[in-house]
Design goal:
Subcellular location: Mitochondrion
CATH superfamily of the largest domain: FAD/NAD(P)-binding domain
GO molecular function, one term: metal ion binding
Helix content: 10-25%
CATH architecture of the largest domain: 3-Layer(bba) Sandwich
Largest sheet: 5 strands, parallel
CATH class of the largest domain: Alpha Beta
Family: Belongs to the FAD-dependent oxidoreductase family.
Strand content: 25-35%
Number of domains: 4
CATH topology of the largest domain: FAD/NAD(P)-binding domain
Pfam families: Pyr_redox_2, Reductase_C, Rieske
Distance between the termini: 35 Å
GO biological process, one term: execution phase of apoptosis
Shape: globular
Strand order of the largest sheet: 16-15-14-20-32
């Protein structure tokens, strides 16, 4: 028996590509204000026969059919590129082998119930279609066809697909764009982060072909915001989520340096700061957070930064090189900036009100292990104190004075003391906002106002993992999912959010991965070696594991995320009795309910 693999278009997308008698793509129908209108999908670049160019095809034998058991994956080399070969429920599947997000090897990920989860950041891909089903990331994977002949496995695939290792799902285009009133749009998206962009892309993927306008206070098109603190010298074009041509191709309009000052939900009008007004039919609010500023004397002086843009990050790196840096706040941003600048600056000092970094999030023991790693890399901590004054010399920062009386030399100061939701412009709108300023939404990302949705860091939503408790989860992955759910429900799909929060932080070449929602945890069960920074920490509330974090123990966090996503419960006794042995043997079947 042989297994052959060749590129195919998923049935869902192939049906969208069926041509009408006039040679144009068959139209989709979408109702706007109750009126049926027809829209045409853009012709997809891959035809129903993906091998119209024989020179672009490669075929190779990769293994024997019995080499893979059910539930196993193998990365196979075709000479000009690699593919991921999967066997599940007696069937073979094949697709791209790298996660399109940051290129993680998916063979080291987790295979469960028809999808593969990335070992690094938790993105999930359907093994039958290659479609992305959970985030982060925007693109899906190329899928290859599998055939079995004479007990050998062959892969036949497009060279281009093997090299790119990513696939952008087919999208609709806007019709008659020139006929639109500039001050009117069907969908208005306030905010151009991950939530806003995924919302716009999902609408197009679902065949929506009316006008979409995104507006942002930023000067750039959507970019990979986590890299502002993890890779601070990245230029805007290097971290752009999509090139300019993408937005032109799919008619997603982006208004940069435009701030919405108010929203009139009765008239369905957004009023911009410069007086411009835009009518909308559906609205997504994805404005994110605004960083908190210091309240001490001297906070407005030069060389004091909140990192909000690529220019901020680039400027800090330039000014900090071989200079003295003070970072206020041991937040994720503050710690990542400290790690990035440690090798570049003359000195890095970090000021924090708490006793241990990340204590509320990772717990005291993990926090102390991380703190020691920083101290071993020349970062000096000043804990349980605050900044009382910033002093200048000739108009520039010179010293940071602490309430403890300590005076720190400082040429640059980075402030990372938290953030508040950027929702001040909604106070008189009638949209339900809680006491902390977060927009309250339901499982479909809908606000209390019909046609108004909200997503990302500025919302609280019911988290199924925690019995539908209303929570705020300011993670990059969650913003992606919010945007997708909002888009589907703008189109009246009735889709409820169901995902496991997943985040990561990178410091000194090491990553901590985290899944779940550990707010209010009452115990931490740690296996591994904190001193060696090779560990896994299970966060429990009563008898139940509510979150997990790890360093150098991939793919345990993705494995636990899959268990939690399936609705299973991990008990504290399971961790104590079994987990360490599971690491020793590599057997984690107990987590999926297959073991005992």
């Amino acid at each position: 028996v042989e297994v052959k693999i060749e590129v195919v278009i998923p049935e869902k997308e192939r049906s969208k590509e069926e041509m009408s008698p006039n040679g144009k793509a068959s139209p989709l129908i979408y109702k706007v204000n109750g009126t049926a209108r027809h829209y045409h999908l853009e012709e997809h670049p891959i035809a129903s026969n993906p091998y119209h160019n024989p020179k672009d095809v490669v075929e190779a034998s990769v293994c024997h059919v019995k080499d893979l058991e059910n539930g196993q994956m193998r990365e196979v080399d075709l000479g000009c590129g690699k593919a991921l070969l999967i066997k599940e429920s007696g069937e073979f599947h094949a697709m791209g082998h790298k996660c399109p997000h940051y290129g993680a090897p998916l063979v080291k990920g987790v295979l469960s119930k028809g999808r593969v989860r990335c070992p690094w950041h938790g993105a999930c891909f359907n093994i039958a279609t290659g479609d992305i089903e959970d985030f982060p990331g925007l693109d899906s994977l190329p899928r290859f066809q599998v055939k079995i002949e004479k007990e050998k496995v062959y892969i036949r695939a497009s060279k281009q697909a093997l090299q790119t290792q990513r696939r952008t799902k087919m999208m609709a285009k806007c019709i008659s764009l020139s006929n639109y009133n500039l001050s009117s749009t069907n969908v208005l998206i306030i905010g151009a982060g991950a939530a806003g962009l995924v919302c716009a892309e999902t609408l197009r993927q679902e065949g929506f072909s009316d006008r979409i306008v995104m507006c942002t206070m930023d000067r750039h098109l959507p970019y990979d915001r986590p890299k502002l603190s993890k890779s601070m010298d990245s230029h805007p074009e290097q971290i752009a989520l999509r090139p300019k041509e993408f937005f032109c191709t799919y008619d997603i309009e982006v208004l940069t340096e435009m701030q919405v000052a108010a929203v009139d939900v009765k008239s369905k009008i957004a009023v911009f700061k410069d007086g411009f007004k835009m009518e909308y039919n559906k609205l997504l609010i994805a404005t994110g957070n605004t960083p908190k500023a210091l309240s001490c004397k001297g906070k407005e002086m030069e060389n004091v930064f909140n990192i909000r843009t690529p220019e901020d990050a680039n400027r800090v790196v330039k000014l900090a090189t071989s200079k003295n840096v003070v970072i206020v706040g041991a937040s994720f941003l503050g710690m990542e900036v400290a790690a990035y600048l440690a090798e570049r600056a003359h000195s890095v000092s970090l000021v924090e009100l708490e006793e241990v970094p990340f204590k509320k999030f990772f717990g005291e023991r993990v926090g102390r292990a991380v703190m020691k790693m920083f101290e071993n890399n020349r970062v000096k901590f000043y804990m349980q104190t605050e900044v009382s004054e910033l002093r200048e010399q000739e108009g520039k920062l010179k010293e940071v004075v602490l309430k403890s009386g300590k005076v720190l030399r400082a040429d640059v100061c980075v402030v990372g003391v938290g953030a508040v939701p950027a929702t001040g412009f909604l106070k008189q709108s009638g949209i339900n906002i809680d006491s902390k300023g977060f927009i309250v939404v339901n499982k479909m990302m809908q606000t209390n106002i019909p046609g108004v949705f909200a997503a990302g860091d500025a919302v609280t939503f019911p988290l199924a993992l925690r019995n539908n408790k209303k929570v705020n989860v300011p993670h990059w992955q969650m913003a992606h999912m919010h945007g997708r759910i909002a888009a589907l429900n703008m189109l009246a799909h009735g889709t409820e959010i169901s995902t496991v929060p997943y985040l990561w932080t990178a410091m000194f070449g090491k990553s901590i991965r985290y899944a779940g929602h550990g707010e209010g945890f009452d115990d931490v069960v740690i296996q591994g070696d904190l001193e060696e920074l090779k560990f896994v920490a299970f966060y429990t509330k009563s008898d139940e594991v509510v979150a997990v974090a790890s360093m150098n123990y991939d793919p345990i966090v993705s494995k636990v995320a899959e268990v939690l996503a399936a609705g299973r419960t991990i008990r504290k006794r399971d961790v104590d009795a079994v987990v360490f042995l599971s690491f020793r043997t590599g057997d984690m079947s107990w987590l999926t309910g297959k073991g005992s």
